[in-house]
Amino acid sequence: MPSKKTYATPLLVTFALVSACAPIPPAGEAPAFTPATAPLERVVEDAASLIQPDNDARRAAVIALVERAGFETRLFEFPNDGRDESDGRPAGHNVLFSIGPQGYGGAVVAGAHFDAAYLRDGTFLDGMVDNAASVVALIRVATALRDAPLNRRIDFVLFDMEEIGLVGSRHYAQSLPAGAVSAMVNLDVNAYGDTVFFGQTDHGHATLYRSVASACATLAATCIDFRRYPSSDHLSFQAAGIPNVSLSVLPRTEVHQLWLLVNAGPDSGLAEGLVPSVFRTIHSPGDKLDRVEPAAITLAYNLTASVLLELAR
Ligand SMILES: [Zn+2]
């Protein structure tokens, strides 16, 4: 996610949407996914394993986490034609793994970038909020849905070089044949807080936003839609004409401040120069392990698994 920008009602998701969408499993059949009711275990340790000296070492740690969860990984290599030299590697590598059948219709992509940012002085950040927590949540989602009865394949794609201009997701989205992917769900900034925000919802993917709304209602989670949403890898799929939505978690006050900052422009009523705390944490030395809350990762996990299940069934 980028640093602060300026930028026009949150739609507080109503409960009315619930029963209309949630698939009811046939009598006696175990539900395909049971949301966690307690914080997931060892997620802080998993996030800590991504604290590395550079992004190549971070990718190796990500692969180790995915393989420890029992998945086979494959790499998607692409040239570094990013917007700045802060990450001087000549090429990047997205990490992929999949679940579900080679079903009819396009696969569903679930993505999160694993790379962390460099400061101008060359300091390499721990990148726990941005974006290790999302990577950990996504690997747990894949584990939870591994044996679920899916009609579509779900491709989990952990993007490289998001921090220097969405490079990994751009090359990946551009490489996809038409119709290969039916929808993309992106996770960015899911480390602390109790409130979901999703977007951007002025891209017209109503079915996808409804899937998020029904999952939020089923989970009794507070979810705020953002017509305009900070830039992240979902934009590469938007550019490729693939329906997409990004999911994030922050404390409620920060979500409302961020909504006003990004969507209300001059009418925000925010104090001049107010910077929501998240923008003072990400891309700073403060983006550390002590910001990671298992409850926030669990909320992202429950929501993402529920949405993917609906999209892939
Ligand atoms: Zn990010």
Detail the topology: elements first, then pairings.
Layout: H1 18-21, H2 43-48, H3 55-68, E1 74-79, E2 91-99, E3 107-113, H4 128-145, E4 154-159, H5 167-175, E5 181-187, E6 195-199, H6 206-218, E7 223-226, H7 234-239, E8 244-250, H8 252-263, H9 277-281, H10 294-311
Parallel strand pairs: 3-4, 3-5, 5-8, 6-7
Antiparallel strand pairs: 1-2, 2-4, 6-8
Bound molecules: zinc ion.
Q: Please, could you describe this protein's structure?
A:
- The protein has 313 residues and is an alpha/beta fold.
- It has a single domain (43-312), classed as Zn peptidases (Aminopeptidase, 3-Layer(aba) Sandwich), CATH 3.40.630.
- Helix content is 34%, strand content 16%.
- It is built from 10 helices and 8 strands.
- α4 crosses α10 and α6 (206-218) packs across α10 (294-311).
- The radius of gyration is 18 Å and the shape is globular.
- Residues 2-22 have low confidence and may be disordered.
- Bound molecules: zinc ion.
- Zinc ion binds next to α4.
